[in-house]
Each structure stands twice: as C-alpha cells, then as structure tokens.
Amino acid sequence: HDYVKHKKITTQLGEALTITCQVTYSSEYCYIKSPNGTEYPMVDDKESQMGMCSLRLEKATIADVGKWGCFFARETGLIVEEMTTEVRLAELMSPGQVEGKSGDNVNLMCSTYGLPLKYCRFVSPSGQGYFIKNVHSFNRIRYYGKGLEYGECGITIQESTPLDSGKWICAT
Q1: Is the CB of residue 163 less than 8 Å from the CB of residue 121?
Q2: Residues 56, 16: contact at Cβ < 8 Å?
C-alpha cells in the first residue's frame, strides 16, 4: 500500500475546502465523513472506480475543523478501508505590544509562522475592519511584511494618530 492514509491540511475560514483521498485499487463506492458525523456518499462512480474519493465545500466553517474520514469499499468480506484528513485553521499570532508617537509610521505584524494565507484582516480599536492583501497601496493602512504566502500579515499605519492607539486584532 503506497498511498497516504493520514494527512493534515490547513485552510482559512470562508475559503473553499477540498477533502481528497486516494487508494491504489478500484472501489465500488466510497463516502466521506465530516468531524460532526455527517456522511457524504460519492456521487461520481467513475471517481471511486479509479480509487478516488473527494468532496469540495465552497466555504470552510469552524464545524469543518477536525478529523475527516474517507471510507472505501473493498471486495466482499474485507473490512472497509478508512483514511483520515485532519483539517486545521491557519491561526494568526497577535501583534503584541507596539509603541509609536503621533505622526510616526507604525508597523503591526501577525504571523502563522510559515502557513500561507490568501488574505487577512485587521480590526482597529474602534471596530473598523481592514481587508489586507500584499499589494501596493497608497492608503493610510498598507500591507507590511514578506508576503501572505509566507504567513505574514502585517500593516503599516502611515502617520498614526491618537485614534490609532488601543488594541488591534488580526484575523483570517
């Protein structure tokens, strides 16, 4: 058996999520079981005949985090084969304490320590949300860091004001 029986994947809330399992033999059917026990039978018989089982969710939610199982039928009398995929969320570590004088440019950084991100958000102390991508911008709040693909979600606050002081939250 030269195929993966257990794997881990990372996603972000709201992103598309695909669970895929593959075996080296043809199977008459397979189904995928979510962490909460919901079973998704395979609709495409051609896929399971080629030893594949997959499920695509349009938007990942908190309920999708955890252990997913793929179950493949084998020949009569043999137990069903189970494979697992563990879904994790890319979590951002908080920016910590940053100080700056009014009028300074202030950098805030959150990181997943290497897990790639497609985007991230910062929420200001007043509750305003900022959608952040690593593209060049002339806005007062700009992307800062090596790149989302490196798991770095940072912002530069140009010419900070007293209204910028307080707790900033970063989220995916």
Answers
A1: no
A2: yes
Q: If we measure between CA atoms, which residue out of 172, 134, 124 comes closest to residue 143?
A: 134
User: Which residue segments constitute the domains of the chain, with CATH numbers given?
Assistant: 6-89 (2.60.40.10), 106-171 (2.60.40.10)
144 within 8 A of 109, measured Cβ to Cβ? yes
Q: Which two tokens stand for residue 143?
A: 């992307």
- Which strand (E) or helix (H) includes residue 52? strand 52-57
Percent helix, strand, coil in the chain, to 5, is: 10, 40, 50
* Each residue's pLDDT tens digit, 12-63: 778 889 999 988 888 888 899 999 999 998 866 788 788 889 999 998 888 8
- What pLDDT score does 138 carry? 79
C-alpha 40/C-alpha 30 separation (Å) is 9
Question: Apex CA 65: angle with CA 60 and CA 71, to 5°?
Answer: 100
Q: Contact at 8 Å (CB) between 68 and 31?
A: no
Phi, psi angle pair for 113, to nearest 5°: 55, 55
